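Before a colleague's protein record goes any further, I have to sign it off. Alongside the sequence sits a line of tokens, each denoting a local backbone shape. I want your independent view on whether this chain really folds as the tokens say. Where you disagree with what is written, explain briefly why. This is what I was given:
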Amino acid sequence: MVSAALVLACGQSTSPTSPTPIPLTTSQIQSRYTAAATHYNQGEAQVAATENTSCDAVSAVVSLGGCQTALSLQRQLTIAYDNALRDIPFGATVATDVSHLLGDDAAIEKLLEQAATAASIGNIAILQQQVIPLLATAATDASALRSAIGLPAAA
């Protein structure tokens, strides 16, 4: 009876409390990062083929609608990847690497959104020229993050 009273008394709190999150192990962080990166890379490979043909002004199958769809999908993949990264409780030692990557991706997402709604292939080409160096920077940031969490460089 005493233990029941203690459980009842301890179980009732005037302010809700949330449990302290349990830090992930390095292996768990690596696994979650790898899953996010793999999902992005697989989707990007599929989108790139469509984008390369639909968005190329000299391609025999150039298509404004197809290009816009591919760019929109690329943007959605980037957003999903970034959201997955935000859900990983990285340690403070890699916060700068994560911040750089998310910042570069935000700039890419903005340009992809503009490109996906552009009125012409020519306008899309101009925006893509701005995206290309950002993609290279984001890839460098991702490599730094991989290294910081103990993963080898991407293949």
